[in-house]
Amino acid sequence: MTATTPGIAEPPPEQPTEDVRPASRVVVVGGGPGGYEAALVARRAGAEVTLVEQQGLGGAAVLTDVVPSKTLIATAEWMTIAERAPELGIRDGGVPDPTGTHPAHLVDLARVNARVVELAAAQSRDICARLESEGVRVLDGHGRLDGPQRVVVDRTDGGTETVDADVVLLATGATPRTLPEAMPDGERILTWTQLYDLTELPERLVVVGSGVTGAEFAGAYKALGAQVVLVSSRDRVLPGEDADAAELIEDVFRQRGMEVMSRSRAQSAVRTDDGVLVTLADGRTVEGSHCLMAVGSVPSTSGLGLETAGVRTTRTGHIEVDRVSRTSTRGVYAAGDCTGVLPLASVAAMQGRIAMAHALGDAVVPLDLQVVAANIFTAPEIATVGASQNSLEESGVRYRTSMLELARNPRAKMLGMHDGFVKLFAHATTGIVLGGVVVAPRAGELVFPITLAVAQRLTADDVAQSFTVYPSLSGSIAEVARTLHHTEVGSR
Ligand SMILES: Cc1cc2nc3c(=O)[nH]c(=O)nc-3n(C[C@H](O)[C@H](O)[C@H](O)COP(=O)(O)OP(=O)(O)OC[C@H]3O[C@@H](n4cnc5c(N)ncnc54)[C@H](O)[C@@H]3O)c2cc1C
């Protein structure tokens, strides 16, 4: 019961208010991280959401790219750790091998790949169940625009369906680039999506392309026990990455017995009776049992009906977007690898979330590539965040930098880790941390304090004054920050 005040009329009983605005209709084309994260955000904002996917939920990220490659690399990482066993006083408990030719552990690739495929499928099923439980309508099929507010779906089970939309998000991803003279056959000449059909370790794998994908697979297959030749058209592996980190990885590759061919452009790959012959632009040839083509990706934007809606693309076929994921057409947004902004699952998901926040009237923070953390899953890993040394040099910003070898870290010594370093960049005047590089086993986990520092604009002194566990690998991050304090202002 509520008390009433004499002389003041009682307000009429509250009527339940009914939101008479119709829910926005959102159609998402593509069910990778760019698409499915956005679909969930849109549902939470009260929209009616339809998601169209032709291959399987989770997209290439879950089914062929991130999840399978990192699951395979988990086995490779275990093999790399096992290499340190003798140094740590562990010996093979079996019968000693007098020839020394048999390693203590052998990889059963059929089992490894069965695990990879099952793990990816399970994650795809989880995503599907989550979307459906949140009320997203999932349509299996190929979607294309028919004007800015309509998506036509060629359903996988036959028939065509038309879905009207107030907002469309295109998140169609990318597929492996192929060369006409080196067409993959799925048996000996492979793209990374075809590797998981292998049931036996390739005897000699020729990896064409030394970008992130080529380097990750070359390193992984070497650790799994294959002979590996890495064919790189550039001066060194991982062009575009931190030069010290790339140099270290190339040295580690060579020390492990990988053949790294620099300044060697592959022109063709053909099958021979029992393997593959790769011919380089200068006429040299490389023989292998298998060849992995890792020469980049092309955006999946053809056949999407972009022209019917006036959605502009770049010269490379990527969809043009701004920092809130808007395309050139009102109401049509795009996210992920089809935009070519930065090909990472985390960036795709963020672009998708930003698109929905913008479209459905929620608070929007535009995409900031300066705070993206990325990791290359070689052994050791290379994790980076914020400004790179190259970008700082180009921009003319006055910065200080310091680098500490991992081998000096007490925990690294105990663990038998020799290769790696921590490098920080800070503004010369303010001391604000602008970026950093960690090269170490599990660098992808270790980089987080630097990510926090960059995102929250902490100074090197803030990092230096924070406690780290003793002994710990992260102790090196605080130690590098301390050396930055002592570096004379203005020096590089
Ligand atoms: C080998 C490899 C390893 C990688 N590892 C990492 C990593 O460790 N960390 C990381 O952050 N990133 C990694 N990446 C990058 C990451 O895979 C991509 O950035 C991410 O998949 C992009 O997500 P997306 O949603 O844009 O596209 P995708 O994941 O490619 O999903 C797009 C989906 O759209 C579907 N589709 C396309 N066209 C249509 C259509 N017309 N109708 C219906 N459906 C359609 C496709 O079938 C696909 O399922 C890796 C990439 C590769 C190649």
Structure description:
There is one protein chain. The strands form five sheets. Strands 5-4-3-2-1-6-17 form a seven-stranded mixed beta sheet. The chain has a five-stranded parallel beta sheet with strand order 8-15-9-10-11, with helices on one face. Helix 1 runs parallel beside helix 8 (345-359), helix 3 (66-83) crosses helix 4 and helix 3 packs across helix 5. It is built from 14 helices and 22 strands. It is 30% helix and 22% strand. The N and C termini lie far apart (73 Å). The chain is an alpha/beta fold and 492 residues long. It has helices spanning 33-44, 59-63, 66-83, 109-133, 212-224, 243-255, 306-309, 345-359, 389-395, 410-415, 443-446, 448-455, 460-464, 475-486, and strands at residues 25-29, 48-53, 137-145, 150-155, 160-164, 167-170, 174-176, 189-190, 204-208, 227-231, 259-261, 266-271, 276-280, 285-288, 290-293, 297-299, 332-334, 373-376, 381-386, 399-405, 421-427, 433-440. The structure holds flavin-adenine dinucleotide.
What percent strand?
15-25%
What ligand species are in this complex? flavin-adenine dinucleotide
The side-by-side strand order for the widest beta sheet comes to 5-4-3-2-1-6-17
Largest sheet: 7 strands, mixed
Note poorly predicted spans.
1-14
Structural class: alpha/beta
Average pLDDT for all residues: 93
Work out the helicity level.
25-40%
* Bulk shape: globular
Cα distance spanning the termini: 73 Å
Question: What's the total count of β strands?
Answer: 22
The radius of gyration over CA amounts to: 26 Å
Number of helices: 14
